[in-house]
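Hey,

Quick one before I head out. I ran the complex with flavin-adenine dinucleotide overnight. Inputs first:
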Amino acid sequence: MSKIVIIGAGISGHTAAAHLRRKLNKEHEVVVVSPNRNYQWVPSNIWVGIGRMKAEELIFPLEPLYKRKGIGYKQAKVVSFHPEGNATETKPYVAVEYVFGADQGKTENVTYDYLINATGPKLAFDMTEGLNPGTNKAFSVCTYDHAQHAWHGLKDLIDQLKGSNKKAKVLIGTGHAKATCQGAAFEYILNVEKELVRHGVRNQVEVTWISNENDLGDFGMDGMLLDYNGLNMRSKDMIEMIFEDRGIKWILGAGVNKIEDGVAHYENLEGEFKSETYDFAMLIPAFSGHGFKGYDKNGADITDKLFKGFMIVDADYTPKPYEEWTVQDWPETYQNPSYKNIFAPGIAFAPPHSISKPRKSKNGTDIFPAPPRTGMPSGITARLVADNIIDSIKSGKESLHHKGSMGNMGAACIASAGFGMTQGSGVSITTYPIVPDYIKYPQTGGRDINKTFGDIGLAGHWVKLSLHYAFLWKAKMRPFWWLIPE
Ligand SMILES: Cc1cc2nc3c(=O)[nH]c(=O)nc-3n(C[C@H](O)[C@H](O)[C@H](O)COP(=O)(O)OP(=O)(O)OC[C@H]3O[C@@H](n4cnc5c(N)ncnc54)[C@H](O)[C@@H]3O)c2cc1C
């Protein structure tokens, strides 16, 4: 009998748990440890942040589902890793602390045969002074409760503007010099702009994009050359066209470093220190590792065998200049090299390097996006990790046949650009592969131009809405859920 412990119930952890439970018979134990009692379909937070969807429409409680499906569940957070056990516990374990109910504050050592670390990123608001969701008129849409706050902030502004001559400024983008998730901020700025139009206050508001990207449309992927209606177009030009069409201004190469009430301070690549005032902002924080510690059986600190910010996996972490980076640096099995029964799919693994070209300001400050790891690869890597564990359990020996690198995986980013079955719109960008392969695709910016394309129109909104329902169906493990791909 094997016991598989999964920490985190986001896209990655939940996907892994679902596949493990479906394919392993009940003599094997599958246990999920996660502090949030709800599953959330994160991409739809954008619509919560504009008041067009209620948080209840994209969340559901995990415990009843897990009970029905025979998945163990602990509403707790992992505090430390003990992959060799300790003086009294021979099995590897994670120390967890319960966060809810009668057990709140209680700690427990949860032993495992296989461990899947799917804890995603820490939303590191603390890395930018004054950036705290819901304060200083600056908000976030990274979780459903943040998105609810954001909608209240935006609605207050819209209410103040309606029937007045007041002017206002909206600022949306990244809130740290090395933040990622530009895609989510891009989606939000388009939705906010559309809502301002819908509420009849657009002409009173200056809408500005602020980002650590060197070029528009970099998205932490170094931008892309894409096929747009049969033409080869750079994402830079496509996004510029979209912003110009909607009257959205932009500030690029900006490392936001301090937020005061209605003022964002930033340094740009020119080394200038500037500020931008606003009445409503949504700024994506830096993502960091959770700061977990690891200990060996004697209690010695072995954190550096497990973590490099995020978790160490089968990537090539050798420091090398940008010109020498290759797709082969990226991991394929998400297995920790020191402890082979530990895996880290989704956002939890440490990337070998950024995908965007690293840039420094004239003062030496790093200002460029960290690599994005979107929902699709999070689901795919979770499934392949689950499949390798299943094969290993069934064959009785380590099996790592299932492989997938961000260098041979695509990302489909469908940014809704306004809500509504007939009025909605979407910007769809499909990129293949996520990490450019300059050897395979030397003429087209490291990407396969037949699989890298952009589209603008109502269809994008419909696809995004369909994905919302399809992925919630899948997450709720409704009939034939496994037929819906990751
Ligand atoms: C607003 C927004 C919109 C987005 N839109 C899209 C989109 O349209 N398309 C797309 O492909 N991607 C999108 N993304 C990205 C996508 O949401 C992420 O790639 C995905 O959620 C990552 O999944 P994950 O499971 O690795 O991490 P997460 O979803 O962050 O899950 C991590 C889990 O770990 C848990 N956890 C944290 N700490 C601990 C601990 N100490 N112990 C135990 N558990 C812990 C958390 O509670 C959570 O359940 C969007 C992201 C945002 C923020």
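Residues 256 and 266 are 4 Å apart (CA to CA).

Talk tomorrow,
K.
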